[in-house]
Amino acid sequence: MNVVNEMEAYFDRLWPICRSITGEGLRTSFKILQEIIPLKLTEVPTGTKVFDWEIPNEWNIRDAWIKGSNGKVYCDFRKNNLHIVNYSIGIHTSMEFEELNKHLFLHSDLPDAIPYLTTYYKENWGFCLSKEEYDQMPKTGNYEVFIDAEHKIGSLTYGELLVPGRSEEEILISTYLCHPSLANNELSGPLLTAFLYKSLIEKIRDRYYSYRFLVAPETIGVIAFLAEKGAHLRKLLKAGLVVTCVGDSGSINYKKSKEENTLINNVVEHILKYSDYDYSIRDFSVMGSDERQYCSPGFNFPVGSLMRTPYKEYKEYHTSLDNKNIISFPAMEEMVNLYIDVFKAIELNRKYRVNQLFCELHLSKYDLYMDLGKQTMRGFEIDDLLHFLSYADGSMELLEIAEKKKKSIFNFETIVKICLEKNLIHFVY
């Protein structure tokens, strides 16, 4: 099975599961993901203080519906798990429509869409439905309301995996898992992250950096992770990316880390600049996903977010229309390759120094000069080799050297490899 088909198969298995920031739906989803990426799961108990936050009670739901006096069922959770406001309390009662209406939520602009809403930190309950479904409900009379859900002392689950390199310095790949049946805004992130792990293992075998993968409930899960690993990351985190909204076929969007001059910002901008992608670069803002936790006061980590169409910028966002119809699995495979290019560039981007301190190298002596009539050799241009050797004095990173030549860093990949093999240069770091 190729990558595209494999992604789709896992998507189909994960899609119907009702997930939240805690609970069995979340754990079931992790078990499926572990078939691709061997995440180590951590359970953070209810009531645990994590900075200014506290892990809430665990939530599990089995069923929910509204039944009219005519016997018709409305807002059936089993037909669409977005029908329930996530984290609703359990309830079984009867009430008039006027009272019920206070607990019904629609999307004002999309009449055929069921909105996605939550009530994580306040005890409440509610149902979400499309305007079309709402219009079918009699506006008078009695309704039976049933939510079979429980809040209990339990835990929050997150998964992580460290893929070691020669260095203890880390590259972080972080995504969230906590939404029910949403495609681009939920499943695209953990699916891409899992397949990115597979691709990293296959394509970057000789790794200088260590790579830490994190899959956690959005916001509270990352805060819990930072409470445990924040001090460690302050010492060792080199760069990071938050993976979200990577499932559609829109243009590429990169949201920069809050600190401007960071390795991750420079590398991603460089890669996109010398690519064929239609792309845009965005400044950091506090509205977004988990990059705001990584870039929060006290941490301010070099973590950006590499996406396609960002959250809130496509009309289906946080509704039932964010489904498989807007997902392009070939585009997701393309995103995996883009992420790999970013990591390859990070691996390649070192400071190099020519071992001979004075004067230009006699290239013919090392079989590195072009034959008569040839402008290229061994996959690189002689001009690029001369440019690299001229600036390889240990003061510049390869990214800077490439930018001076107005070329991609990958134009110098073979040059660096050959020069290392011939012992003409060495790493400064």
Quick summary:
This protein is α/β, with parallel strands linked by helices and 429 residues long. It has 12 helices and 21 strands. Strand 18 and strand 19 form a beta hairpin.
Explain what this protein looks like in three dimensions.
The chain has 429 residues and is an alpha/beta fold. The chain folds into 3 domains: 3-56 and 155-348, Aminopeptidase; 58-152, Glucose Oxidase, domain 1, CATH 3.50.30; 351-427, Orthogonal Bundle (Arc Repressor Mutant, subunit A), CATH 1.10.10. Helix content is 31%, strand content 24%. The chain has 12 helices and 21 strands. The protein has helices at residues 3-14, 24-33, 97-100, 131-136, 183-203, 220-236, 263-273, 291-294, 329-348, 382-391, 398-405, 413-421, and strands at 40-45, 49-50, 53-54, 58-68, 73-74, 91-96, 104-105, 127-128, 142-152, 155-163, 170-176, 210-216, 237-243, 252-255, 279-282, 303-307, 351-354, 376-377, 380-381, 393-397, 425-427. The strands form 6 sheets. The protein has an 8-stranded mixed β-sheet, sandwiched between helices. The chain has a 4-stranded antiparallel β-sheet with strand order 5-4-9-6. Helix 1 packs across helix 5 and helix 10 crosses helix 11. The longest helix is centred in the middle third of the chain and has 21 residues, at 183-203.
